[in-house]
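Worked example 2:
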Amino acid sequence: MSWYKETNFIGCDMPFNSADFVIAGIPYDGTSSFRPGSRFGPDAIRRKSYAIETFSPELKKDLADYKICDAGNLEFPFGNRTAVLSAIEAAAAEIIAAEKKSLYIGGEHLITVPLVKKYHEKYPGLKVIHWDAHADMRDDYMGEKLSHATVARRITEIVGDKSHYMFGIRSGEKQEYDYIKEKGIFCDPKFELWAETMKKLKKFPVYFTLDLDVFDPACIPGLGTPEAGGIFFHHFMDFIKEFQGMNIVGMDVVEMAPDYDPAGNSAVFAAKVARELILSAV
């Protein structure tokens, strides 16, 4: 695979072959329908990571104490969605084959579909934990089956109705909510069953996908599709403490579009989220 980058995420400069954990940027936003620009998210998050420290006071861990590689951004032909998704699959397969845990930084949420596909091939019992403001359960969006608006539907088709756990959902069409209810897909908009559910998932391999619009836009306005009524950073930190002891094999953070926040606060926020996720998984 071909990779490129401007700079590493702070404290993550280990060579790939020596690393236990890999950061990979997936700068794709080809199906974004409201506010494009998440393709610029990976580099913005890397640059703004130097505004934070490598140490997490909450988790009592330091990025500098772990073997973490920032592989850079995956290179692909932006105008060819099929080729992009194939390239993402190939990149994930390479990281999985090397037996490295990972955080993929988007980019729009469609990138999660090929990632989940490859992780499910490796881990047939895979459970997906999915944080999002939007249901993303449409079967198609304007005739397209592969879109940022159909991600949850495609994930469910890959892992099965009972292996997809959705949290934070607060927006969607009636038909999407009807589908979730009909299929019995786990959906906890207010995280009321979070701790209980995480205890049940400790014996399974887990893929975690985080659409940053699960956060309230007061925290992070630079988003592809902001949605009022989300969680705040202290909620996030309380929730991810439940990841301790879990087998999180892969993660992604998506939908930060830096150009909609000229002050750069959204990228700093996303960088801190990324740091905490990495340290929760190493």
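Helices lie at 41-48, 81-97, 112-122, 151-159, 174-183, 194-200, 233-240, 265-281. The chain has a mean pLDDT of 96.
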